[in-house]
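Slide 14.
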Amino acid sequence: MKRIVLTGGGTAGHVTPNLALLPRLKEAGCEISYIGSYNGIEKELIEAAGIPYYGISSGKLRRYFDIKNFSDPLKVGKGYLEARKLLKKLKPDVIFSKGGFVSVPVVLAARSRHIPCIIHESDITPGLANKLSIPGAVKVCANFPETMKYLPADKAVLTGTPIRAELFMGSRLAGLNFCGFTANRPVIMVVGGSTGAAALNEAVRNLLPTLLKNYQILHLCGKGKAAEGYEKLEGYRQFEYVSKEMKDLFAASDLVISRAGANSICELLALRKPHILIPLSAAASRGDQILNAESFERQGYSYVIQEENLTNDTLLRGITTVMEKRQDYIAAMEQSKLNEAIETIFGLLSEAAEKKK
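Slide 15: predicted structure.
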């Protein structure tokens, strides 16, 4: 495997597993390129990693009526033609797709040029983008045991999610110093995802007078979601987004409250961080986060609060329960076998590239 093209975008969750693969691919001497949307979040993240980045037209394919349903297929068609041209230029031996709608034209273009493609499905049930891509893939990597029944038997491989190695190298002291926190009170980290979570942000801020009596609160609230008037509140720090400091913030945290995006919860699992999951409601999504959270709850990894049940009382009860049973949750997470995703996926990529020859 000499050349590889990575693709995926739309949210940070469609990019971070690709970033996690980079050190292994570089170690193997691969020539790496990335195809994403013109100006999506993936462009900033990948260029910061020093990887050649190529933008293509991208449109969202929806299951519901929207006026953009008339224009977006044209964008996808344009993206397909651009991807074909790029693949002719880049001549990759294999493609790895992490999903998101920008990946669909890349996978389709790869199929038309007979380039093997491996895709990764993070959620329990495949999203629309990956459903469209599966016929063009030689293998489909899955995150959850429950996902296997939704995939072609000859393509499905249970791999887990690639986790960035740097997340395991955090310093608790550096994290505390970054927040201006002390070492004598536990830290709760609240993560609403790259775009933030209004319901979660509001619930946490409403509960601050009670929480700050016993805890320090580190709040990653999402771009544009920082609230005024909290700057001088002792024991509370809010950030719209962090990047390189994330490893230290994880190390400093005793409990994490998070949405239930697949990549985020797999990072919590790998780091053995006791946590509370508040999945995005079915009214605001296709319900994938609810299924993700239920799977982790069944396996004993997570305490789950459905968004419609999120109140001051349920959140406080959850925090108290998880802090009291921290070791039980950690012990359950230590039994997980899905921690070799990078090597497993690298092996699949190498095998696919060899067969192409």
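Speaker note: The first helix runs from residue 16 to 27.
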